[in-house]
Amino acid sequence: MKYVIIGGSAAGLTAAETLRANDSEASITIVTDEPESGYARCLIPDVLAGAKELAGITWRAPGFGRKNNFSIIKDTRVVSLEPAQRQVLLHDGRAIGYDRLLVATGAVPVAPTGSGTGVEGIFTLRTYRQARAIGEAADKGKQAVVVGGGLVGLKAAVALRKRGVQRVTLLVESPHLLVRQLDEESAAMLERELNNQGINCIFGARPAEYVKNPGKGSLRSIILVDGSEIPADLVVVGKGVLPNITLVRNAGGMVGKGIKVDEHMQTTLPGVFAAGDCIEVNDLLTGRPVPSGLWPLAVEQGRCAAFNMLGKPRVYPPPVTRLNATQFGGLPLVSVGQVRIDGKAAEYTVHVSRTLHYYRKLVFKQDRLVGFIMLGNIDRAGVYTALVKKGIPVSQTLKQKLQDGTVCVWDLLTS
């Protein structure tokens, strides 16, 4: 059996290892467009900050390909799929045949907007090489602007300050930070923490033009749509990512916000499966199709896809797609599930606990916990997360413990 996997990150490598563990004789080829593979994308900001190099973010040891008898083709783009011929075409003209194909192409950064985007010094942050390039530019500059108030933008801004950039400005088009993960009150707490780290946040801001230095190609400043101008030696655009659906779409497969797959991770193309950030899934809490976009989900999906490619049926259940845990300075953050209920107050009840340095918001839909925010203190967050994922009714006694913060694992096991 010949397996081909496009993508060398969480979903692709997990699938490859699962295939090898269950089929010692199969031909397994991994094609990745990066020179490196097997590193954790969630640790890329540490590279930008200067805290880690490639070895420090690698989750598969060098030589794992040889150990597992994989053929890994690096720094190579797949330009098209030919499902009828059961082959993929590479940018260098080669064709690779397969019996089963896994598309694990991940996501691509949202492109910069505004005129003058070809100016030298404008970056996106998705890969190890991009983090290195931004770091080199940051070492030469004193003023950086980050565009985007989501997780990518915030982590980039914090990393630039850690690297030693003197002035970091964060441009946020939304009314507050992390609009998908936080409400207004918790976002204000996070903004104070960023301000304490020397990061200036400007809200309702959108770039209109990138201005270069006279007679040079390097960046001088950004002009916003309101006409204001911000000096900048470099810009990092962190406006999020979009599922990389191009190959499947061009081959005639069904796509939406991401590649459409069934419960066995199979696309609408014969013999072609997909997993990871490139696909869309039906969210457990809302039932709506949304991009997958989480590292743990990519691992689960890669494993599930591999079993189905092997002819050993596995069903992938709808996941909770909004699940984020991170830390900004001394402020840990966990946000899970439905945390914004604008316009749906009749269906939901909300309980908030707060101090000057701590915020906890619980969202219940009837008798079920469907979301929460913890900021500043994330004690027992795992128990709350498990209850959201299980979707089980919560008794009044357990609800009170959740509100008091006294819930424990035993309560979860006996509920």
Automatic annotation (TrEMBL):
| Swiss-Prot/TrEMBL keywords | FAD, Flavoprotein
What cofactors are annotated for this protein? Answer: FAD
NADH-rubredoxin oxidoreductase C-terminal domain location: 319-391
As one GO molecular function, the record gives:
oxidoreductase activity
The domain of life is: Bacteria
Q: Please state every residue range assigned to the domain named FAD/NAD(P)-binding.
A: 1-302
* Signal peptide range: none
Name this protein carries in UniProt: Pyridine nucleotide-disulfide oxidoreductase
Organism of provenance: Desulfallas thermosapovorans DSM 6562
